[in-house]
């Protein structure tokens, strides 16, 4: 595996990208299971446990993670950086439409995925030394993370509900 890719895609970002195809994010148990972890085996295996998935997910560097655990974590997250199509897909997502909508809609957004996303953004800003001029998709993402964005979502949902609710029949007098 190309170590340059590991530098570009820290564990916290890989966890943010781990999801069912066009669906909800993968849980720590699903990631560990996809990496080969079996809670019923009772054996010490070289695979990763859900607790290790959570620990690795908080990191912004692979520096102190064993190589086999890195491979298992990436496999569990459905990220194969030896496959050029995966690298292109992820890079394209981050460059063009990095919105993480599937995370914004999740019930654990405020407790798990929001803080994890902010950790990655902080790492990315420091790494790129962007200052006040981040790439447009990340700037859009930061704008979407503001409290006003949540109010906009609530207002849009209320307006949509008003448009889609059935209109009562007129009362004949």
Q: What is the average of the pLDDT values?
A: 77
Range of strand content: under 5%
Count every beta strand, where a strand is a DSSP E run of 2 or more residues.
0
Per DSSP, the total helix count is 10
Q: Biggest β-sheet: count, sense, barrel?
A: none
Decide which structural class fits the backbone.
Answer: mainly alpha
Order of helices and strands: HHHHHHHHHH
Task: Please tell me about this protein's structure.
The protein is mostly helical. It has one domain. It has 10 helices and no strands. Helix 3 (28-34) packs across helix 4 and helix 3 packs across helix 5. It starts with a helix and ends in a 9-residue tail after the last helix. The model has no long low-confidence stretch (mean pLDDT 77).
Supply database-style keywords.
173 residues, mainly alpha, 0% strand, globular
Topology:
Elements: H1 3-8, H2 11-17, H3 28-34, H4 50-57, H5 67-76, H6 84-96, H7 101-104, H8 109-128, H9 136-144, H10 147-164
Helix pairs in contact: 3-4, 3-5
């Amino acid at each position: 595996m190309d170590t340059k890719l590991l530098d570009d895609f820290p564990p916290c970002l890989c966890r943010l990208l781990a999801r069912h195809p066009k669906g909800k994010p993968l849980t720590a148990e699903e990631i560990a299971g996809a990496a080969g972890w079996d809670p019923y085996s009772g054996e010490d295996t070289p695979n990763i446990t859900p607790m290790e998935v959570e620990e690795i997910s908080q990191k912004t560097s692979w520096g102190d993670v064993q190589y086999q655990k890195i491979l298992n974590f990436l496999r569990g997250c459905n990220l194969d950086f030896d496959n050029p199509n995966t690298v292109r897909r992820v890079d394209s997502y981050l460059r063009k439409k990095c919105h993480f909508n599937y995370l914004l809609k999740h019930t654990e957004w405020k407790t798990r995925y929001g803080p994890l996303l902010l950790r990655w953004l902080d790492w990315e800003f420091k790494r790129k030394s962007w200052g006040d001029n981040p790439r447009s998709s990340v700037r859009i993402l930061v704008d979407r993370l503001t409290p006003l964005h949540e109010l906009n979502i609530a207002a849009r949902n209320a307006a949509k509900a008003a448009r889609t609710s059935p209109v009562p029949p007129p009362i004949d007098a």
